[in-house]
Amino acid sequence: QVQLVESGGGLVQAGGSLRLSCAASGRTFGKIAMGWFRQAPGKEREFVAAIAASGGSTYSTDSVKGRFTISRVNAKNTVYLQMNSLKPEDTAVYYCAADYRPSPTTAQAMGAIYYDYWGQGTQVTVSS
Question: What is the DSSP pairing of strand 10-13 with strand 122-127?
């Protein structure tokens, strides 16, 4: 069982930055891959970024490449999403998720159905 708690969301102007954090419970954090997804009003949940258990591999969707960075500190049971150059279209509820596969394929990392546990989400609002 893994419990996930996101934090760091808020209201920011376009071009600004936010850093989301996701704290995980349990002793197996260092053995599980982690991902970030987002869901805007009226839209389906979409993949944002993911990171393998070791931190050696990362994955991200094209729309955030060069702007968002996923990282993790296993000693702190925490995964981060650094978001720079934010745009109004980044406005959404952001969720972190845990996948018991330590080294997912790209397709697995990007697929919400492969994740076993989800946080409650944190709202990110980017004003124009």
Answer: parallel
Burial (CB < 10 A; 0-12, 13-18, 19+), residue 1, is exposed
Going from the first residue of the chain to its last (128 residues), give the mean pLDDT of each consecutive group of 10, the final group possibly shorter: 95 98 92 97 97 96 98 97 98 97 94 96 97
118 to 17, 24, 61: CA distances (angstroms): 24, 10, 19
Q: Longest C-alpha distance within the chain, in Å? A: 42
DSSP state of 61: -
Report residue 8: phi and psi, to 5°. 105, -5
